[in-house]
Amino acid sequence: MILRGLALRFSDFSSKKFREQRLRKALNYAAFEGDADEWLGKRLLAAFLLGLAAFLLVYNAYRLLGFLYFPEYEFPLSLPLGREPLVLIIPVIPLLASLLAGLACLALVLLLYFLHLYYLIEGRARMVEGVLPDFLLLVSSNINAGMTPFHSFQAAARPEFGPLSEEVRYAVSKSLGTTSFNQALSELSNRIKSDTLQGFVTFFSQAMKSGGRLSKLLESSAFDIRQTQELRKELQSSTKMYVIFVVFIVMVATPGLMAVSVQFLDMLQSIQSKTRNSAVNETGLGFLATSSELSSDFMSQTALLLLVGNALLASLFVGVLSMGKAKLGLKYFPGILLVSFLVFALARAFLAVVLPLP
């Protein structure tokens, strides 16, 4: 009860319109029947606690290990308490870093929660679209056998159809009350986020109102959906080489070239440090005596940042090519980033052995 009360308190930080419209609709798509306020509040509470933990971790690293210690940016604060004022030292840089770490952790946790919800919605939609042609053909066979549309859908709702059979059973049970079967069937699109299912439900509802050969309509709809799915699979297979090429460039070629650049800069700085104290005019290597403003540490950090950006863009691009939606490619981001960092580290170690510093 205490946890539920805290969750409801935290859910008040979001707008009521967002909870009642967008979030409730998304939870319906994910087949979540619980309270939307409680669902959101628990995740906001968890994100807040993890953000607070990140804030305390960074600040304790400053207090115990001297992390981000900049004495020139520490300011005294005098509080007139009692006879002698209380003087506090405010570390500006560590506090700002701790605050940014806490906010970043909070935002990341919320992003992961909503991405998980998004993947649940898309997963249910893809499962429904995969079995929808077979389901429609079975309904058509039942109608040809003499069943009414109501009993045809009821008999076709078999367990092997997964979420589709569950939603059809829900619509059938709802139509046994005050709601008509046509209206209950049209609400399928409110619980499964699929454009294919929504188009079929709208078309089938109009056909039931106007009359016609429903079995023929179901068969033609099933064949059209299956043909669309086959064309989509062919398109995905035709773009597979582009996906492989992009992944190879991001995970292997780019980290390797960045490792070569960093190793070249290390060698150049080593030569410059030795040449600076020698007879430059006699050797004719005056350009090597000029110190470079770029350091290898700066280049390494820049390379890591570029690898993060490349991994993010590549994952979005893979999602568009393979599944048609950029968000669906975000699940590849951790793997691409990990392999990129590993290749960069191995390439640096290999070049340090093959091309040692002079």
Provide structural commentary.
This protein is mainly alpha-helical and 358 residues long. The chain has three domains: 2-122, no CATH class; 131-232, no CATH class; 239-276 and 284-354, no CATH class. The chain contains 13 helices and two strands. The chain has helices spanning 2-11, 16-29, 36-65, 92-144, 149-156, 163-175, 181-186, 195-210, 214-238, 240-275, 280-283, 296-323, 333-354; strands at residues 74-79, 86-91. A two-stranded antiparallel ribbon has the order 1-2. The longest helix has 53 residues, at 92-144.
Task: Outline the secondary-structure elements.
Layout: H1 2-11, H2 16-29, H3 36-65, E1 74-79, E2 86-91, H4 92-144, H5 149-156, H6 163-175, H7 181-186, H8 195-210, H9 214-238, H10 240-275, H11 280-283, H12 296-323, H13 333-354
Antiparallel strand pairs: 1-2
- Principal-axis shape equals flat
How large a portion of the residues is in β-strands, by DSSP E? under 5%
Strand numbers in spatial order across the main sheet: 1-2
Structural class: mainly alpha
Sheet with most strands: 2 strands, antiparallel
Nearest-integer average pLDDT = 84
Radius of gyration: 31 Å
Strand runs, count:
2
* Helical amount: over 70%
Number of domains: 3
SSE sequence, one letter per element: HHHEEHHHHHHHHHH
Enumerate how many helices there are, as a single number.
13
Low-confidence stretches: none
End-to-end distance: 68 Å
